[in-house]
Specification:
The protein has 246 residues and is an all-alpha fold. The two termini are 30 Å apart.
Length: 246
């Protein structure tokens, strides 16, 4: 990893940190969902609380990815600084990597309150090995949503990006079963869930922290969504660059 990429990441982290509500806002919704829906209804059940906390972790990942990258990238494209960085001798790779690193930093910050609430106010539990596996599962599960956010951000102006991020967020969360326990979602959700990236992502975390066996269909679907969203993000970036410099 180059020093230039770390410099870009530091710049973006400091830029966002100067607006505290931007940091707090990203963590508020998942943490509030934990307090209002998980703690009262599943807090005393070790298995239920563990799976619900894992679901809220992926909920936070989706929120951070779609809005940090989707709306954030689109907003940056409207500023003179973004096209300027693409003309520098270092090329766009350092700036792009820095954006990914800063996004991962704020994603981690959005996950922290969810994990703390699960630890302090529920009976959720896992082993040290399960905790380490869950970190790897979260990283893998975040990939399609990171690429999806980048595709939205590079393809659309800010107002449209905000609307699209909001439109795709809830159907993916509800349809993927993030708002219900394993095997307890409505029947139509259980039918469509394995084909959505949210289900594959949350199954990885459920398997890491508990006694859950992932579905082959969900894993294949997650891989397909990841590749498809990566290709879409690359297309959107090249299209945006071609439009700016043609």
């Amino acid at each position: 990893m180059s020093l230039l990429a770390l410099t870009h990441a530091r710049f973006r982290i400091l830029e966002t940190a100067r607006i505290p509500i931007a940091v707090v806002g990203g963590a508020f919704f998942p943490a509030a969902s934990m307090l209002f829906f998980v703690v009262p209804f599943a807090g005393d059940d070790p298995a239920g609380a563990t799976y619900a906390t894992a679901s809220m972790v992926m909920f936070a990942v989706m929120t951070s990815s779609l809005f940090t990258y989707g709306v954030g990238v689109s907003g940056d494209r409207a500023e003179p600084w973004d096209p300027y960085t693409r003309t520098l001798p270092a090329g766009p790779a350092a700036a792009f990597t820095g954006r990914i690193l800063s996004g991962l930093t704020f994603m981690a910050l959005s996950l922290l309150p969810v994990v703390l609430i699960g630890w302090l106010f529920t009976a959720a539990t896992t082993t040290p090995a399960g905790l380490l596996l869950s970190v790897a599962a979260v990283v893998a599960g975040a990939l399609p949503f990171t690429f999806m956010g980048l595709a939205i951000g590079y393809a659309l102006p800010m107002k449209a990006a905000l609307a699209v991020a909001q439109i795709v967020f809830f159907p993916l969360a509800f349809g993927g079963g993030l708002l219900s326990a394993p095997s307890q979602a409505p029947s139509f959700v259980e039918t469509i869930a394995p084909y959505l990236p949210t289900r594959g992502a949350v199954e990885l975390v459920w398997a890491a922290v508990g006694d859950f066996h992932v579905s082959a269909t969900s894993m294949i679907s997650l891989a397909v969504w990841t590749v498809a969203m990566a290709a879409l993000a690359a297309w959107a970036y090249r299209r945006d660059e071609g439009t700016r410099f043609s």
